[in-house]
Amino acid sequence: MTVEIWIAYVAAVLVLMCTPGPSQLLMLSNSMANGFQRSLATAAGDLTANVLQMLAAGVGLGAIILATENAFLLIKWLGVAYLVWMGIGKIRTAGEGTLIEASPTSIGALWLQGFVTSASNPKAVIFFAALFPQFIRSEGVFWTQFVILSATYVVIDGVFLTIYGAGAARIAKRMSVSAKVWLDRLSGGFLITAGILLGLKSASR
């Protein structure tokens, strides 16, 4: 893989990352509600799912996923329901206690939320299976190029999630106590929106 091809790949991924998706909205929500450092567990869950999806693409499971689409549609809609349920719950309990100090979500739960949100879009495997061949050259070693592309994607995605989380946490810290009720509602709205976006992805090819 030449440097020029890698740069072209980075540019393509950056363009794809410019529009916030369900994972980014979840990161915003969890960072506002639990603080930036704890929300990094959400980013870790998301990236874990991404790595598994890329590995699945690398070993040719894209065709299997297409053949068992009904099963994966069930997984997707369970993920949609999970996000919407969390969003509604956050809106209903808006303003109960202080934003970060009162009963923060456990690290394990934050990781699971990130993992479920990303894994609930199994067509990501198809996406990676379609994206990577555009930048992999047949004369090179496949797995070397695959690891480079995968690692690059994970780093870029991690940077974007970190920026979203840090920005949201900084805004949350500067808000007054009375404004935190609306912040909770906004956080819940992000979760519901993430679910809707995931549902739209489920409905589209």
Could you give the topology of this structure?
Blueprint: H1 3-17, H2 22-34, H3 36-58, H4 62-67, H5 69-92, H6 107-119, H7 123-131, H8 142-173, H9 179-203
Structure summary:
With 205 residues, the protein is mainly α.
Describe the structure.
This protein is an all-alpha fold and 205 residues long. The protein has one domain (3-203). The protein is 78% helix and 0% strand. It has helices at residues 3-17, 22-34, 36-58, 62-67, 69-92, 107-119, 123-131, 142-173, 179-203.
Q: Show unreliable segments.
A: 97-102
What characterizes the major β-sheet? none
Fraction in helix: over 70%
- Secondary-structure-based class equals mainly alpha
Name the average pLDDT. 77
**What is the general shape?**
globular
* Overall radius of gyration: 18 Å
Total domain modules:
1
The number of helices is 9
Strand proportion, as a percent range, falls in: under 5%
**Sequence of secondary-structure elements:** HHHHHHHHH
Features:
single chain; 205 residues; mainly alpha; 9 helices; 0% strand; globular
